[in-house]
Amino acid sequence: MQTNNKISLSLANKAPLATLGCSIVFCILALMSTFNVTNVALAIGVGILSATLLLAYWHGKGGSFFILGLAAPMLSILFSTLPDFWSLGWVINGFFCGFAILLWAFKIKNR
Fold first, then answer.
1. How does pLDDT run across 62-95, given as a tens digit for each residue?
2. Helices H, strands E: what count in the chain?
3. Which residues of 78-109 are buried (b: 16+ CB within 10 A; e: fewer)?
4. Domain ranges in the chain?
5. Who wins on pLDDT, 110 or 43?
6. CA–CA separation, 97 vs 91, rounded Å?
7. Is-contact 74 36, C-beta < 8 A?
C-alpha cells in the first residue's frame, strides 16, 4: 500500500488557521444560540477520532481506516441532541475543530 505522508503534513500545516476559524465560528454561534456542552464534546471527540483514523490510512495502515474515518462524523450526528438548526452548527463546527486540533498536535509532534 502506498503511503501519503505529504497529504497529512499538508493538512497539518493548515491546522492552526483552521482552529482559529473554528474559534471564530464558535463565537458567532455563541451569539446566536445556547451552548450544549455534551454535543460539542462529542463532536470534538469524533473529530479527533476521524483525524486519527485518516492519519492511520495516510500512513499506510490499511483501507479500512479510510472507511471508518469517513464514517466517524455520522456518530456525532446520530448521538447528538439537535433541537434546532443552530445545534447542528455547533456539532459540525465541533467536529472540524477536533479534527484541526489533532492535526495541529500531529504537526507539533513531527517538527
1. 889 999 999 999 988 999 999 999 999 999 999 9
2. 4, 0
3. eebeeeeeebebbbbbbbbbbbbbbbbebbee
4. 5-109
5. 43
6. 10
7. no
